[in-house]
Every structure is written in C-alpha cells, then in structure tokens.
Amino acid sequence: MLIPSRCYTCGEVLADKWIPYISAVQNDKNNMNGSVNPEEDLLELKYINVKNPKAEKSIEGKVLDELKLHKYCCRRMMLGNVHIISYLS
C-alpha cells in the first residue's frame, strides 16, 4: 500500500510523519530488553487487568504520541497501513 499522504477523515498531513514513525517503531522493537525471539515479541498480546485497569501503551502508541498524532482517525491511518512495498520490490 502507498504511504498515506493525508488522513481520510480530518485531512491532516501524514506523509511527513511516515518515515520517522516506521524507523522509530523498528528501532524500539529491535532494542527491546530480553527479547530471545523477535517474532514472538511482535505477537505478544497484553491484556488489561480488571483490578489494575491502567494499561501500558504499545510501542506504536508511544511513537504516535511523540509524533503528536492524538486523533484516532490519524492514528488509524498510520496503524492500519500495511507496509508491503518492501515485499514487492
């Protein structure tokens, strides 16, 4: 899929945030402590405990906060985009 240039809902420009988003997520996932098998870390699910409802943000969520993408429509554009261009070339 192509890099999203603008949010479909609100029209905010997203193209300038795509490369920093991808590189920051890849760097953070590569620098995870104690990761024996990185493929298992990508599939790790975290659940919210009912007794302690405070949930820890995912790496993607933290990076989106750093890029100041707080609207859920813009976050959807970044999270929902499948980065398959590397597989096609």
Written account of the structure:
The chain has 89 residues and is mostly helical. It has a single domain (1-32, 57-89), classed as Arc Repressor Mutant, subunit A. It has 5 helices and no strands. The chain has helices at 15-30, 38-42, 59-66, 72-80, 85-88. The model has no long low-confidence stretch (mean pLDDT 80).
Report a brief summary of the structure:
By secondary structure, the protein is mainly α. Helix content is 47%, strand content 0%.
SS strand fraction: under 5%
Q: Radius of gyration over alpha carbons?
A: 15 Å
How many beta-strand segments? 0
- The low-confidence runs, each spanning 5 or more residues with pLDDT under 50, are none
Structural topology:
Elements (H helix, E strand, L loop, with lengths): L14 H16 L7 H5 L16 H8 L5 H9 L4 H4 L1
Helix pairs in contact: 1-3
Organism: viral metagenome
GO biological process, one term: DNA-templated transcription
Pfam families: RNA_pol_N (PF01194)
Provide the descriptors you would attach to this structure in a database record.
single chain, 89 residues, mainly alpha, Arc Repressor Mutant, subunit A, DNA binding, DNA-directed RNA polymerase
